[in-house]
């Protein structure tokens, strides 16, 4: 395949550049950018596989890929993302941005409570840790002043309640209340 493979001939002798077709000098192969990004089909052509397209003597396979339903879907999705990107002034998706902002605000609220609890315990010269620290401990188990104070406030505070519930049901996830942090 020569440079012409990167162009598509239209019926009226005009040519358009195949913007989706990219060449890797390192791998010496061609790839379909939009299918690599958006294809959901399990029937992958070589243009969207790790090795890429190297059948230079069969450039018609590029056209076959170009006309495939899966490629057309991926191409449309790519162009739609590009339009959204321009419309939102560089932000890929305004919904994702607002979700990130909401999460930032929520973590900020939570960390403010953590900070005030630690400050209170430190001011009163009270130790933070207990014998065994776990949100799962029930009854009179000594989980420490810090966790017990958080649990007490969570009875009245929905922000803390939600975070503690999440930390309890997803051990190992980010919670900012483990003894290491
Ligand atoms: Zn494709």
Index terms:
181 residues; binds zinc ion; elongated; mainly alpha; two-stranded antiparallel ribbon
How would you describe this protein?
The protein has 2 domains: 3-87, no CATH class; 94-169, no CATH class. The strands form 2 sheets. Strands 1-2 form a two-stranded antiparallel ribbon. Strands 3-4 form a two-stranded antiparallel ribbon. It starts with 6 loop residues before the first strand and ends in a 12-residue tail after the last helix. It has 181 residues and is mostly helical. It contains 6 helices and 4 strands. It is elongated, with a radius of gyration of 28 Å. The structure holds zinc ion. Zinc ion binds next to α1 and α3.
How are the strands ordered across the major sheet? 1-2
Average pLDDT over all residues: 84
Largest sheet: 2 strands, antiparallel
- Name the overall outline: elongated
Low-confidence stretches: none
Taken in chain order, the helices and strands follow as EEEEHHHHHH
